[in-house]
Design brief:
With 124 residues, the protein is mainly beta. It has 1 helix and 11 strands, in the order βββββββββαββ.
Length: 124
């Protein structure tokens, strides 16, 4: 069974930092690209960042470039978030596409599995 379990969310002041983690199991983690997606209240899901299966390529949505850093190790994908802004407030999910579509497809919201998410709230 594929499982993605996010952690690390919380309440932080504007300008602060958080590190999100996603523990993956039930599939060959090292063979698949991984993504972070967020959803703010009343809005649709928004792709945030992705990392290639080998960890050598990273991708970011324009609003988080230079502030967020995605990384991965054995069975976990991380998202370091710095210089947080109130508009970053959302529930953050990690996601995986086990069909092997290119990351460009993932950026458009094509995933097979999502975790339960972790809430990030940034106060002004």
């Amino acid at each position: 069974e594929v499982q993605l379990v996010e952690s690390g969310g919380g309440l932080v002041q504007s300008g602060g930092s958080l590190i999100l983690s996603c523990a993956a199991s039930g599939f060959s983690f090292g063979n698949f690209n991984m993504s972070w997606v967020r959803q703010a209240p009343g809005k649709g899901p928004e792709w945030v960042s992705a990392i290639s299966s080998g960890g050598d390529k990273t991708y970011y949505e324009d609003s988080v470039k230079g502030r967020f850093t995605i990384s991965r190790d054995n069975v976990t994908v991380h998202l370091l978030m710095t210089s947080l802004k109130p508009e970053d407030t959302a529930r953050y999910f990690c996601a995986v596409d086990l069909t092997g579509r290119p990351i460009a497809a993932n950026m458009e919201g094509n995933y097979d599995y999502w975790g339960q998410g972790t809430q990030v709230t940034v106060s002004s």
